[in-house]
Design a protein that fits this description.
Blueprint: H1 9-18, E1 21-26, H2 31-35, H3 48-60, E2 68-72, H4 75-88, E3 92-95, H5 111-117, H6 119-127, H7 140-157, E4 162-167
Parallel strand pairs: 1-4, 2-3, 2-4
Helix pairs in contact: 3-4, 5-6
Length: about 170
């Protein structure tokens, strides 16, 4: 038979108080997003549309407070985080461990061109990224460990708080 666990109201409230809330936000649009290019570690700024998206996010995120704001140290993530920081009176904490996957030989290249040259690798990248070999890139399992490990550290150091993390599409 299954066991039933009943917690008292004070126990439940303590658990909820100790729980860290993480709000994950992807950066706003860049020109490279619009033209379908791999960005990775390339430090590409937001487009005019991306800046408008960041401003709208800063005005409209439906929370009343945040305790900390972390962002990848790349310009597009920092620019997305700044309006939030201004609204909530917080500094943006830049963090290189929250960067996008390093795409190696694919960085800066157009998706269509890479697909024309290496259709099998592109298909594998989208369907099974752990197993694709992109020349000179960060191995996907290493990328996953980097991101997951850093988020766990943030949760530990910010226990019981509400935290925003501004990062990238894959991270």
């Amino acid at each position: 038979p299954a066991a039933l666990s009943v917690r008292s109201k004070p126990e439940q409230q303590k658990r909820e108080k100790d729980m860290t809330e993480i709000i994950i936000i992807r950066h706003g649009e860049t020109e490279w997003n619009k033209t379908g290019r791999f960005q990775g570690h390339s430090d590409v700024p937001l487009s005019a549309e991306g800046r408008a998206q960041a401003e709208a996010l800063g005005r409209n995120l439906a929370v009343d407070h945040v305790d900390a704001i972390y962002a990848s140290d790349l310009m597009r993530a920092i620019e997305t985080a700044v309006p939030l920081a201004a609204r909530f009176g917080r500094e943006v904490i830049p963090d290189p461990l929250l960067r996008e996957l390093h795409f190696g030989a694919w960085e800066g290249r157009n998706f269509q061109n890479v697909n024309a040259e290496s259709p099998d690798k592109m298909k594998k990248f989208y369907n099974d990224p752990e197993c694709v070999d992109i020349p000179d890139s960060e191995p996907f399992p290493d990328f996953q460990k980097r991101i997951a490990g850093r988020v766990r550290e943030i949760v530990h150091t910010q226990q019981g708080k509400r935290v925003i993390i501004v990062s990238h599409g894959a991270s």
